[in-house]
Amino acid sequence: MTIALSQFDEVRLDRVSRDFGALNALRDISLTIRRREFIALLGPSGCGKSTTLNCIAGLLPVTGGAIWLDKSRVDTLRPEERGFGMVFQNYALFPHLNVRQNIGFGLKMRGTPKAEMDRKVNEALALVRLQGQENKLPGQLSGGQQQRVAIARAIVIEPPLVLMDEPLSNLDAKLRLEMRAEIRRIHNELGATTIYVTHDQDEALSLADRIVVLRDGVVRQVGTPKELYEAPAHLDVADFMGFRNKLKGKVVAVENGRAVLDVEGARISGVARERLSPGSSAYAAIRPDDLEVGEAGPNAIAVTVDTIEYRGREFVGTAHSAGGFDFVFRSHQAVEPGSTVYLRADDGRVLVFAEPTQGRN
Amino acid sequence: MDALAPATTIDHGPSLRQRLAANGFDAVTLLVVPAAILSLLLFIYPFAFGFVLSFEPKAGGDWLANYRRFFSDAFLYETIAKTLWLAVPVTLLNLLLAVPVAFRVRLMRRQRLLTTILVLPITLGTVLVAEGLLNYLGPQGWFNRTLMTFGLISQPLKLVHNYWGVFASLLITGFPFTFLLTLSYVTGIDPALEQAAATLGANAWQRFRHVYLPLLMPGFAITFCLSFVQAFSVFPSAVLLGEPAGLTRVISIAAAQAAFEEYDYSMGSAIAMIMGFVQLGIVVAVLASRGLFYRGPASGAKG
Predict the structure, then answer these.
(1) What domains are there in chain B, each with its CATH number?
(2) For chain A, which domains are there?
(3) Does any CB of chain A come closer than 8 Å to the CB of residue B300?
(4) ipTM of this predicted complex?
(5) For A44, A343, B112, B158, which has the most beta carbons within 10 A of its beta carbon?
(6) CB of B217 within 8 Å of any CB in chain A?
(7) Around Cβ A329, how many Cβ atoms within 10 Å?
C-alpha cells in the first residue's frame, strides 16, 4: 500500500478558545487525541463542535490556547501548511474537475510527480471503491459517490489527521448506514486518526473509539461509547444518550450512591450520578426501553397514555403525568390511549442528576 | 385482445388549458405581452427601419453604396479601430481592477456601504464625470498643480482632450458596472471550495488559479461583453474629453456627424449597423470561447 499516513503520537488541544466578538464559541477545550484513534465530537447544533474542527483544520484562528502535533505547534500555521485532510459537510468537491482531478488536487498542489500521483490516486479510488468513475464530474455523481470522492481526496494527501464535519448529514437514511460502515472500514484499513463531528449519537456510538460531548463550547464528558452510554456524567449528556424521560423531583435521601426522589408524591430511586443533597431539586433520567407498563408500587408513577404506535416488535407510547412530565415508553402490549397506567423502572436503570444551574455550568 | 382494451373509453383528454399549461403557457404568460410590444416598438422596429434605411443611399447609387463609402474612406473606417483601441483596453483594465476589489469586498461585513460608494459614479452620469475630469486633470487642475508643486514635473501633463482623457472617463464610469457584475459572480462561489483547497495544501495563489479562476471564467466573459458594449458606444466623453476630430474620433461620432451634420440618415444608419456588427462579432467570439470552460453550478454539492 503506497498511501501511508504520516505518523505521530498525539494531537493535543491545550485550552483552546474561540471567541466571536463577545460570544465564546469555545472555552478552554483541552483534549488529547492519540494515534489511530477515532474521536467523535458530539453535541447539539451550536455547541462548538464544528468550530473546534475548523480551529484544528486552521480555517478559523483560535483566540486562545494552542494546538500541538507532538512537539510542534500547529495552531499558528495556515491551513495549507498543516496538511490535515478534511471532509466537508457539503463535500466541497471542485465542480469543474473530474473525480480523478479532484482526488489528485492535493498531490498536484504539492508538486507530486505524475507517476506517483497516478499510483496514489488509483489506490485512493480503489480504497473508496470508485474505480470506473474517474472521468465523471461531481455533478454526475450520486450523493454517496460524492462522499467517497471527498474522503479519497482528503486521505490521498496522507494526512496525520483526518477531519470530518458531519459527512453523513446530506445522505438518506439507508446510505448513511452504508457510508458509516465505509468510513470506519477506511479508517481501519489506513490506520488513520480521525476526528469526526456529528450531532447524531448513533453515529458517534457506532463509529468512535472515544466520544467528546460538547455543549455551549465546553467539554461535558469524554469517554468510550460504553462509558457515555451507561454512565453519562451530566443530565444533558444523558439526554443525548437516549435518556428521554426526565422527571424533576426533590431529593429525599442519598445513601451509598443511591438517591431517592419525590416525584409528584411517588418515590423514585436510582443511581446518583452527581453530588446531591437532601431537599434539593434533581432529575431522574430513564430510557424509554427501561420503562415498563405495570402495577402501582415502588419506582412506579401514574400516567395518562396519549398515543400508542405499532412498531412491529413492540409498541411505542407517549404519556403524561399529572404534574405535566412527558413520557416515552415501549410496551409489548397495546395500551388504550386515554387510559391511566403505571410506568415502572428498575432502580438500577434510573440515573439521578442534580438540577443544572441556570446558564452555563 | 379485447381483454386488454380499456373498459371505458375516455371521451375527454386534458382540456386545452391543461395542455397549454403543461407546455408552460398559462395566464401568467400573458404578462410578457406588454414587454414584448414595448421591445417591438422601441427596439425591433427602429432597428429594422435603420437596417432598411442603410440600404437606401441618400445620394442614390446601388444599395451597398453607403457601406462601400464607409470602407473606402479611411476617415470613416479608421473609427472602428479607434473605438476598439479605447473600448478593449478599458474593459480589460476594469475587469482586472474589479477582480481583486471584489475578492476583498466579498469578505467584508460593511459590504453594502463600500458597494454604494463604488457604485456612485454610475449615478453621476458621463457628462458630470467629464466636467470633473476636465477640471481635475486639466493643465491648471489639481493633479498637474500638485505634481508641479512637488517638482515632479516642470510642465503640465496633457491628460485631457486626448486619448487618456477619454480612457480615464470610460474607466471611471465603467468600473462600477464591471465591479458589481464581478462581485456577484465571485460571491456566487461556495466558500467551502476555497477552504477545501486550503486544507489540501493550495496557497492563496493556487486557490485563485485552480479553483476560482476556472469557475469564474464564464462570468468574466459575460462581464467583459456587457462592459465592452458600454465602452464601445462611447460618445459624450469622446467629444468632451478627447479629440473628436483626431485620435478619439470613435464610430458613434462618425455616425452622429453623418446623420446630424450631413443630414444623411441613410449613411448614419449604415454606420450604426456596422457598429452593431462589430460589437456583435466581439461578443459572439467571447461568448463562444466560454465553451472552453466549465459552465455548471459553482458549488461543491448537488443543489
Answers:
(1) 1-53 (no CATH), 74-292 (1.10.3720.10)
(2) 10-235 (3.40.50.300), 244-354 (2.40.50.140)
(3) yes
(4) 0.84
(5) A343
(6) no
(7) 28
Asked if residue A51 lies in contact with residue B260, where contact means CB atoms within 8 angstroms, the answer is no
Burial class (CB in 10 A: 0-12, 13-18, 19+), A297: exposed
pTM for the model stands at: 0.81
Q: Give the residue on A whose Cα is nearest the Cα of B200.
A: A106
Q: Across all residues in chain A, what is the average pLDDT?
A: 91
Reading across the β-sheet that carries A218-223, which strands appear in turn? A85-87, A162-165, A194-198, A38-42, A210-215, A218-223
Asked whether the predicted pLDDT for residue A2 surpasses 80, the reply is no
Contact B200 A59 (CB under 8 A): no
The per-residue pLDDT for B128 is 87
Highest-confidence range of A34-38, A242-246, B129-133, by mean pLDDT?
Answer: A34-38
Q: Considering only the beta carbons, identify the residue of A59, A80, A93 that sits closest to B202.
A: A80
Which of B196, B202, B301 comes nearest A86 by C-beta?
A: B196
Give me the amino acid identity at A130.
L
Chain A residues inside the 8 Å CB shell of B198: 58-59, 78-80
Tell whether B189 lies on the interface with A, counting CB pairs under 8 A: no
CB spacing of B200 vs A153 below 8 angstroms:
yes
Q: Looking at CA atoms only, how far is residue A223 from chain B in angstroms?
A: 29
Over residues A255-282, mean pLDDT: 89
Q: Which pLDDT belongs to residue B151? A: 86
Neighbour-count burial of A245, counting CB atoms closer than 10 A to its CB (0-12 exposed, 13-18 middle, 19+ buried): buried
With an 8 Å Cβ cutoff, is A139 touching chain B? yes
A&B contacts, CB < 8 Å: 99
pLDDT at A132 over 60: yes
- Tell me the pLDDT tens digit for each residue of A290-309: 998 988 888 899 999 999 99
Which one of B200, B207, B290 makes the best mutation probe of the A interface by having the most chain A beta carbons within 10 Å? Answer: B200
Residue A131 φ/ψ region, left for φ over 0, alpha for ψ in the -120 to 50 degree band, beta for the rest = beta
B192–A92 C-beta distance less than 8 A:
yes
Interval A101-116: pLDDT, tens: 999 999 999 999 999 9
Phi, psi dihedral angles at B201 (to 5 degrees) = 100, 10
Q: For residue B7, what pLDDT is reported?
A: 53
Q: How far apart are CA A95 and CA A102, in angstroms?
A: 9
